What we know:
This protein is α/β, with parallel strands linked by helices and 527 residues long. The protein folds into three domains: 31-124 and 238-402, 3-Layer(aba) Sandwich (Rossmann fold), CATH 3.40.50.300; 134-224, Orthogonal Bundle (Helicase, Ruva Protein, domain 3); 410-512, no CATH class. It is built from 21 helices and 16 strands. The strands form three sheets. Strands 4-3-13-12-11-5-10-9-6-8-7 form an eleven-stranded mixed beta sheet. A three-stranded mixed beta sheet has the order 15-14-16. Strands 1-2 form a two-stranded antiparallel sheet. It is flat.
Amino acid sequence: MALAGRLKIGKVSNREISRRNILVHPPEPPLDIIFSNPLDSVYVGRTKIFNAPFYWTYHNVANPHIAVVGISGSGKSYFVKTFLLRASYVWNSNALIIDWAGEYKDWVKEANGSVLSLGKGSYLNLLDLGGMKPYDRIKQVMRTLVLLTDIDNYPEQRRLTEQALEKTYIEAKFTMDTREQKDELGRPILPPTLKDVVRILQEQASMGTYEFPAELENAIYRLRKFTKPGEDYFAQQSSIKLDKLVTSGLVDLDLSGLPDENFRALAALTILQFIKERMRLTGWAAAKGIRLFIVLDEAWKIAKEENSDAVMIVREGRKYNFGMIIASQNPTDISETIFSNAGTTFIFKVKFERFLDYLQGSLNFSNFMRDEISRFSVGECAVNLTLTTSVPYPSTFLMNRVEGEEPTKEYFLDLMPALTERQRRDVSVARSVSFLKNDFRRKLRQYGLLDDKIEEFSKAFERGNRHMDVISFVILLERYGVARRNVSDFLKDAGVADTTIINIFGKVDVKKSGGSIGQISQIILED
């Protein structure tokens, strides 16, 4: 200790030294935890304190399920997209996005994935078995109705509905306690639909012998809303192949075309039920990696309920190599069971005190961490790992930002304004050409354009849904100082014919001089 500029040596007990916290482990796991084998893990970004690379892997966490929370625009969706792309590279993982608001569909198309739109031409038969026994499927349908309606308050209506479901399968020649359903010739039997259930209930009502007609009418009314013409998305034979949902790479199930939250929740719960049964039928997997990631984003209607199939998948998914990613602006919209079973939580910016209270109470991080979370900028996040072994260091640490990536984008040039009437009639002449966004930006840098001008170009293409007419394109390039020879080389590289390039420059000159594009008397191509 120092007194008046002098050093004084004295005895201090170990207990006193421990209270002074001279050496404290920084709030960050050691490198052997966060820096896993890059060939068997997903890179996320760098840590804030030591700038160490963080590679996520399912090997050292309690389970592969991930919770993602943060305000709108904080980077949640960007993280999910990046994670799914990299997981597909590393483990060849499939991904199914149950897309509540249609937020992911454009990105999935750009990433060469598949988009299935319920409410916009695709159908999902609620009475498909998905490899289940009819008795088991009836129990699932009833559990779904309990979650989405008030049927549990009316035992008689519940009994009538369950009875009609059973009769529907029996009338369709289904064997109630077997999975394989074949007719006498060994052909698959077509499943019934909700319309058959409603018909059976209506036939019972028309007989006039049931002692509680009001109960019967209400049971019919509850199901009929899903069978109305134009809204019978779950009462026709399925156009969606259930097996392909979970084995076709990146798939977006777009629910934005459905009428309301109940319809969306019905679709999501049905799909999760089929996935859960497929998971059980497939059995334990010895191969490394995650076979399927299921994404639920802002699906509070089903993520909050303790009896939801989302919770059941979270409880069982690890042993079958299935992972769930659940994202929400409001952490209280995610079931506590899901939170407690999530092996990893990514926390982006959270502002509201009650949300911070909930997260801090659930994940037990420090007040320092809480303050950092409330001040995050876009892409910054905290990560909480529930590791398989007890560790002597904090389980929550800070990330500089998620280092993401986007799928390759193409920009399209419309050549029609530069084509002659004869060329327009010739079906062999290209109407448009495309080039990669990243290649285009790189070329512009080679031409000497600064980032602000390059960004203006990108915004111009995005405003046109990645399309621009070639005349406007060339005028903009020349306005920013790109030489005509470079413009010509760029167009040739993109596949534009020489004769079309001559027409393009002629019409550019006419337009820049204020003349009519329809008439060109002389073409001058600069050297």
